């Protein structure tokens, strides 16, 4: 029980940071979370919490809160973008994945994680942007606004794509534009939550993902288009909804009605960032979540990988008396799996955007698979969804 009574600072009050803080505190650590924003607000849109991520939320004691804030997804349905016809339905109920597959607004997930962290004794400080980190005798000195903690011996950065610690550990890891941009929006909806499915509408050079949120009162939309001109990274760039409508004017089924109800959208460029080569400094600092392994959103695993990271890192820090050994073990335990997930997400992007004969052949193959062996397509993801880090690292 190496964490008992130990002081730890976590940078970032996102999914990875709050889950990690709770996992550390439940093992006896005294944890402070530093969040650069002035308050924890409802940021982002919908998330898909797959069984591998839900396993961590259950282990952290959030099963009831997740059931209250999220919607269980019965299936993932792939559709032809042009006419909206079903290509294949992946039956999540039939697959029998443990812990379920959940659709939830990011703001609601952050709220339940923050409540759980505070209940575990975590101190969350907002308005604390860490401008500079220095290591010296006695640990790490954090520079920023007044009220920063004194020197800390265990520093864990879950502060996303632009993490200062990531850049210091991996100075040459430059991202590149993928030639794709994504719009996101949340629109009003009225659907019985027990009928919830995630739907993917696939078209040449573009696709659109949608699913209900918040008890069926809202609908999440993420639409991706290939293009030569790029947009900035980040979730906060507003765009004209008419641009989204024009990009998906050829789509059928329910898509046109959804887009007519869309009055506010955000647009961002999709950049590929390499999985970090170095996740820790060999002393007492490490990165996790998007800071270590940003991913494209085509497998809906960013939040799930963050939850897995949080659990594994806390478990290994508690298992090893030597911090450097624990952090090295964390990178070894996680790096291969996250690389596999990131590459699978990259392949999905290509599969969704097929054109011409290749698209027709692929859709025909999926339709046949759905009729002949309906469970087979999902079994290809057993390695992903049935992976339970809470059993692997108790």
Essential attributes:
alpha/beta; 25% strand; five-stranded parallel sheet; FAD/NAD(P)-binding domain
Give an overview of the whole structure.
By secondary structure, the protein is of the alpha/beta class. The chain has a domain at 7-47 and 106-174 and 273-349: 3-Layer(bba) Sandwich (FAD/NAD(P)-binding domain). It has helices spanning 15-26, 51-59, 63-69, 92-95, 106-119, 164-169, 241-247, 255-260, 302-319, 323-352, 356-372, 376-379, 382-385, 389-392, and strands at 7-11, 30-35, 46-49, 71-72, 75-80, 86-91, 102-105, 123-126, 132-136, 139-143, 155-157, 176-188, 197-203, 206-213, 218-226, 238-239, 265-272, 285-287. It has an 8-stranded mixed beta sheet with strand order 6-5-13-14-15-12-17-16. Strands 8-2-1-11-18 form a 5-stranded parallel beta sheet, covered by helices on one side. The radius of gyration is 21 Å and the shape is globular. 44% of the residues are buried.
């Amino acid at each position: 029980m190496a964490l008992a009574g130990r002081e730890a600072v976590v940078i970032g009050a996102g999914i990875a940071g709050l889950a990690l803080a709770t996992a550390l505190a439940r093992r006896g650590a005294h944890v402070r979370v530093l969040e650069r924003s002035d308050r924890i607000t409802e940021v982002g849109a919908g998330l898909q919490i797959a069984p591998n991520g839900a396993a961590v939320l259950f282990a952290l004691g959030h099963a009831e809160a997740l059931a209250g804030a999220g919607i269980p997804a019965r299936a993932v349905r792939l559709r032809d973008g042009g006419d909206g016809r079903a290509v294949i339905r992946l039956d999540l109920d039939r697959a029998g994945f443990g812990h379920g597959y959940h659709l939830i607004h990011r703001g609601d997930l952050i709220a339940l994680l923050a409540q759980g962290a505070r209940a575990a004794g975590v101190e969350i400080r907002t308005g604390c942007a860490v401008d500079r980190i220095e290591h010296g005798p006695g640990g790490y000195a954090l520079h920023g606004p007044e009220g920063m903690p004194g020197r800390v011996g265990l520093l864990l950065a879950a502060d996303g794509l632009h993490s200062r610690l990531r850049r210091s550990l991996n100075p040459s890891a430059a991202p590149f534009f993928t030639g794709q941009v994504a719009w996101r929006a949340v629109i009003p909806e009225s659907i019985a939550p027990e009928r919830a499915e995630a739907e993917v509408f696939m078209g040449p050079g573009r696709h659109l993902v949608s699913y209900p949120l918040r008890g069926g009162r809202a609908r999440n939309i993420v639409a991706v288009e290939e293009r030569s001109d790029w947009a900035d990274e980040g979730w906060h760039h507003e765009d004209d909804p008419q641009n989204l409508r024009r990009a998906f004017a050829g789509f059928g089924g329910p898509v046109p009605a959804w887009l007519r109800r869309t009055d506010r959208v955000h647009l961002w460029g999709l950049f590929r960032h390499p999985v970090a080569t170095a996740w820790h400094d060999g002393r007492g600092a490490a990165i996790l979540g998007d800071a270590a392994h940003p991913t494209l959103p085509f497998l809906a695993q960013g939040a799930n990988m963050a939850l897995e990271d949080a659990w594994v890192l806390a478990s290994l820090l508690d298992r090893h008396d030597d911090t450097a050994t624990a952090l090295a073990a964390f990178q070894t335990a996680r790096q291969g799996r996250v690389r596999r997930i990131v590459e699978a997400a990259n392949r999905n992007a290509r599969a969704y955007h097929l054109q011409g004969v290749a698209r027709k052949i692929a859709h025909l193959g999926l339709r046949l698979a759905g009729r002949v062996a309906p469970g087979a397509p999902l079994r290809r993801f057993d390695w992903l969804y049935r992976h339970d880090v809470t059993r692997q690292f108790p």
